Backbone:
C-alpha cells in the first residue's frame, strides 16, 4: 500500500526554458552578494542567553567553557591567541591564580612572544599585584633585553608608583645594554622631571667634608652645566652660594645669586631672594641692599611685561622704578621697549594709555636729562606715529608747542599748532592756540583764529561769546554787537539760551536799554518761556525810570494773557507767583488782591494708566491747577464754588448764634420748647420749611427724623410761608427773638430732654466734589419759585440761578 501511494504521487514538472539567449541586463556575482548582505540573508541569529540561577549551573557552565578552551589548546598548542583568550576568561571570573597558571603554561610553549609577556604583566598590574608584575618585567627584560617596549613599560610602572629610585635603577640597567638614542632621551627627561639635585649636592658635600674644596666646586659647576639654563634648580644655587660663602668668596657668592636671579622664574625664586637679601645685610653695604630690593622689583616687572607686553600700567611702574635708580641709557632702553608695543587696533580708546608713554618719555628727556634736541625728536616721532586721519591727541600738539615756546622757538610752536589745525581740527586745539596768542597779546591773530574756529564749528555758542567778549575788552562795541547778531542768526546752536543771555547782559552793561527791550521782544517772538517773561519784567524793574513798576506790571499782564493757552500750568503758576512777589514788595494791597484772584486752585485728580502693551496699569493721583477763567467755563466748578460759599456761610451763622445764646436761659428754653412741642400739631416745622435751604440737610448716621417731618409727594406744591398757621396755645420761648422770615433756626436750639448735655456736632470734613453734590436738592428746593434776587438769612447771600 505504501509503495502504491508513493507511485501515485506526482512529481512537479520542471519548467523548460524556451529562449536560451542571454538577457539584456546581466547580474554579476558581486551584485548577488551585495543583495544578500543588504537583505541579511546569511546572518545567523545570536545564540540564546543563558541565565544561571544557582551554583550548580555556574559550575556546569565553567566546566563546559574550560573543556572547550582545553580542546582548542590540545588541537593547536602554538596558537597563542587561544591561550590569551583562555587566561582573559579566567581573569573575568576573578580566577587570577588560574589565569596566572595558564600564562605560565603558555610561556613554556613560546617564551619569546612579546604580546604574551605584555598581557601577563598588564593582568598583574590591573589586579594590583605589584610584586608579581615586577617579577614578570624582570624575567621579560632578562630573556628579551632588546625589546624596548618592556623597558618603557617597566620604567613607567615604577614612576607611576612613585618609586623614583627603582625607575632610575631600571634606566641604569637599560643603559648597560647601550640602547638607541630615544632611550637616553627618556632617561634625561625623567631626571629633568624630578630634578634630583640632592644627589649632586650630596656628592659636593661629600667632597667638601673630606677637604676636597676644588673637587666640591667642580661638582657644583658640573651640576649647573648638566641642568642648563632651562631647567635650573633653586636649591642647587642656594647650596652653591652657601658653599662659596663658607669659603669667604663674597664676590663669587654675589655673582652666583645674580646669575640665578636672571634665569629662574620669579615664582620659583622666593627662597633665592630671601638668601640673597640676608647675604647683603650681613656682608654688603647700603647700596648693595638697595640693589637687591630694586633687582627684586625689577625682576617682578620684567615678568609682568613679558607675560603681557600691552600692560601699560606695568610699564609705567617699571619706568618709575628705573628712573629713580638707573642711568639715562638704561631708562631710555626701557622707554624704547615700552613704546615699541603699539596697540593692535587703531581706536582711540586703546591708545589713551599708550600715548602717555610718549609724554613721559619726552618730559624725562627735557626735565631730567636736559636734552632738548632728543626731546624734540621724541615729540616729532610720536606725532608722526599717531593716525591723524582717524583720531588725534590735542594734548600732544599743545605739549609740543609749549615745549617750543620754552625753547624760545615761537615760529616752530605756531607752525606745529597750524599743522595740527590743518590736519585734524579740534575744539581743544583752537582754544589752546587762541590762549597762546592772547598771552602773547597778538589780538589780530586771535581774531583770525576765532574766525577759523567759527568756520569749523558755527554752532558753538561759547566761541561766539568769547569772541564778542574779546571785542568788548578791546573797546570795539559795534564789532561785538555785530558778532552777537551773527551768532543769534545761526540756524543751529548748541546753547541758544546762553547766547541770548550774554547778548542781553552785554546790552545792559552798555546801558542800551532800548536795544535790550528790542532783544527781549525778539526773543519772545521765538520762545514764550516763562523765565524769559520773568527776566524781562525784572529788567524793567531794575531800570531807574519813573514808569518802571508800571512797565514791569504790564509785562506780567501780557505774559499772563499769552500763557492762558499754555498747557504747562506750572509755568503760568510760576509767573503769577513772581508777579505776586512784585506786588507784595512794590504794589498796594489792592494790586496784591487783584493778583491773588488770578492764582489757581490746586485740585487732586485721578487718571487711568496704561502699560506699554496696552493693558490697564491702574490709577494715578496727580495735582492739577484750575485757574479762575477755567472755572468760569465749567458749570460744575461754578456749582461747587456756590456750595462752598453756602457751607461757609452756614458755619459762620452757627458760630454767631452760639455766641449770642446765654447759658442762664438754656433751662427755661428747654421747658418751653418741651411744652411747645407737645402742643404743636403735625405739620411742617421751621426746619422742614420747603423754602428753608436747611430742610434737606444731611443728618448724622443714626439720628431720627424730627417729629412731624413727612415725605411730601412728588408734584405737591409747597405752602407759602405766610399762610402757615401757628398751633393754638403755643408759647414763644423766652429770650427767643423774632427771626426774619426764611431764616434757619440755630443749631443749638433743637429739642432735647431736660438736663441732657448738648451733643457735639459732627466734624466738618474737607469738602470735595461728591460732598457738595449732596447739597443740590436743597438748592433746587430753595430756589424753586423764587427769583434770583431773593435773600436768604441775615447774611443776605444772593442765590444765582442754576446753570
Residues:
Amino acid at each position: 500500500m505504501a509503495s502504491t501511494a508513493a507511485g501515485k504521487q506526482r512529481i512537479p514538472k520542471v519548467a523548460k526554458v524556451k529562449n536560451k539567449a542571454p538577457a539584456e541586463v546581466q547580474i554579476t556575482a558581486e551584485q548577488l552578494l551585495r543583495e544578500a548582505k543588504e537583505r541579511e540573508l546569511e546572518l545567523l541569529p545570536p545564540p540564546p542567553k543563558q541565565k544561571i540561577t544557582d551554583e550548580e549551573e555556574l559550575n556546569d557552565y565553567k566546566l563546559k567553557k574550560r573543556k572547550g578552551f582545553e580542546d582548542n589548546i590540545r588541537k593547536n598548542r602554538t596558537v597563542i591567541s587561544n591561550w590569551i583568550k583562555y587566561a582573559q576568561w579566567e581573569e573575568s571570573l576573578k580566577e587570577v591564580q588560574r589565569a596566572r597558571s595558564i600564562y605560565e603554561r603558555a610561556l613554556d610553549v613560546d617564551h619569546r612572544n612579546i604580546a604574551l609577556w605584555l598581557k601577563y604583566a598588564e593582568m598583574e598590574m590591573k589586579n594590583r599585584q605589584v610584586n608579581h608584575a615586577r617579577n614578570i618585567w624582570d624575567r621579560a627584560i632578562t630573556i628579551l633585553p632588546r625589546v624596548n617596549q618592556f623597558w618603557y613599560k617597566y620604567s613607567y610602572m615604577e614612576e607611576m608608583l612613585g618609586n623614583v629610585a627603582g625607575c632610575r635603577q631600571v634606566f641604569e640597567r637599560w643603559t648597560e645594554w647601550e640602547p638607541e638614542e630615544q632611550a637616553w632621551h627618556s632617561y634625561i627627561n625623567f631626571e629633568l622631571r624630578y630634578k634630583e639635585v640632592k644627589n649632586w649636592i650630596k656628592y659636593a658635600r661629600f667632597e667638601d667634608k673630606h677637604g676636597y674644596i676644588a673637587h666640591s666646586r667642580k661638582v657644583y659647576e658640573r651640576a649647573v652645566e648638566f641642568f642648563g639654563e632651562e631647567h635650573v634648580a633653586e636649591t642647587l644655587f642656594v647650596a652653591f652660594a652657601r658653599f662659596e660663602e663658607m669659603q669667604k668668596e663674597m664676590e663669587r657668592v654675589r655673582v652666583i645669586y645674580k646669575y640665578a636671579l636672571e634665569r629662574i622664574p620669579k615664582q620659583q625664586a622666593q627662597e633665592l631672594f630671601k638668601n640673597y637679601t640676608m647675604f647683603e645685610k650681613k656682608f654688603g653695604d647700603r647700596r648693595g641692599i638697595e640693589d637687591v630690593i630694586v633687582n627684586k622689583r625689577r625682576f617682578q616687572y620684567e615678568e609682568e611685561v613679558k607675560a603681557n607686553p600691552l600692560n601699560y600700567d606695568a610699564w609705567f611702574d617699571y619706568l618709575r622704578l628705573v628712573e629713580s635708580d638707573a642711568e639715562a641709557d638704561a631708562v631710555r632702553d626701557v622707554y624704547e621697549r615700552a613704546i615699541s608695543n603699539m596697540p593692535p587696533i587703531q581706536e582711540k580708546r586703546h591708545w589713551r594709555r599708550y600715548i602717555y608713554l610718549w609724554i613721559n618719555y619726552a618730559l624725562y628727556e627735557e626735565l631730567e636729562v636736559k636734552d632738548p634736541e632728543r626731546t624734540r625728536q621724541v615729540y616729532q616721532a610720536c606725532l608722526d606715529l599717531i593716525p591723524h586721519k582717524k583720531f588725534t591727541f590735542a594734548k600732544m600738539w599743545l605739549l609740543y608747542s609749549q615745549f617750543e615756546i620754552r625753547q624760545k622757538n615761537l615760529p616752530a610752536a605756531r607752525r606745529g599748532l597750524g599743522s595740527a589745525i590743518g590736519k585734524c581740527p579740534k575744539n581743544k586745539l583752537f582754544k589752546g592756540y587762541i590762549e597762546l596768542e592772547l598771552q602773547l597779546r597778538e589780538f589780530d591773530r586771535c581774531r583770525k583764529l576765532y574766525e577759523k574756529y567759527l568756520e569749523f564749528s558755527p554752532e558753538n555758542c561759547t566761541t561766539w561769546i568769547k569772541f564778542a567778549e574779546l571785542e568788548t575788552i578791546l573797546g570795539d562795541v559795534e564789532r561785538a554787537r555785530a558778532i552777537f547778531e551773527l551768532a543769534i542768526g545761526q540756524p543751529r546752536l548748541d546753547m541758544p539760551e546762553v547766547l541770548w543771555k550774554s547778548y542781553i547782559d552785554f546790552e545792559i552793561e552798555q546801558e542800551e536799554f532800548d536795544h535790550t527791550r528790542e532783544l527781549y521782544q525778539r526773543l519772545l517772538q521765538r520762545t514764550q518761556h516763562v523765565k524769559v517773561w520773568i527776566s524781562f519784567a525784572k529788567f524793567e524793574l531794575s531800570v531807574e525810570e519813573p514808569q518802571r513798576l508800571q512797565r514791569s506790571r504790564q509785562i506780567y499782564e501780557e505774559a499772563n494773557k499769552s500763557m492762558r493757552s499754555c498747557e504747562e500750568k506750572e509755568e503760568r503758576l510760576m509767573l503769577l507767583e513772581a508777579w505776586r512777589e512784585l506786588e507784595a514788595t512794590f504794589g498796594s494791597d489792592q494790586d496784591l488782591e487783584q493778583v491773588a484772584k488770578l492764582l489757581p486752585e490746586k485740585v487732586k485728580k485721578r487718571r487711568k494708566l496704561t502699560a506699554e502693551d496696552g493693558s490697564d496699569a491702574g490709577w494715578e493721583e496727580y495735582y492739577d491747577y484750575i485757574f479762575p477763567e477755567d472755572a468760569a467755563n465749567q458749570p460744575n466748578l461754578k456749582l461747587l464754588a456756590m456750595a462752598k460759599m453756602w457751607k461757609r456761610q452756614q458755619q459762620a451763622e452757627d458760630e454767631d448764634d452760639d455766641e449770642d445764646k446765654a447759658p442762664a436761659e438754656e433751662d427755661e428754653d428747654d421747658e418751653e420748647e418741651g411744652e411747645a412741642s407737645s402742643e404743636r400739631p403735625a405739620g411742617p416745622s421751621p426746619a422742614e420749611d420747603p423754602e428753608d435751604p436747611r430742610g434737606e440737610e444731611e443728618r448724622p448716621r443714626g439720628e431720627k427724623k424730627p417729629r412731624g417731618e413727612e415725605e411730601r409727594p412728588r408734584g405737591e406744591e409747597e405752602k407759602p410761608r405766610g399762610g402757615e398757621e401757628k398751633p393754638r396755645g403755643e408759647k414763644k420761648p423766652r429770650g427767643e427773638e423774632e427771626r426774619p422770615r426764611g431764616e434757619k433756626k440755630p443749631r443749638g436750639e433743637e429739642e432735647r430732654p431736660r438736663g441732657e448735655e448738648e451733643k457735639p456736632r459732627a466734624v466738618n470734613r474737607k469738602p470735595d466734589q461728591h460732598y457738595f453734590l449732596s447739597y443740590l436738592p436743597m438748592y433746587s428746593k430753595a430756589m424753586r419759585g423764587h427769583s434770583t434776587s431773593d435773600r436768604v438769612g441775615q447774611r443776605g447771600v444772593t442765590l444765582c440761578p442754576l446753570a
Observations:
- The CA atoms of residues 257 and 276 lie 6 Å apart.
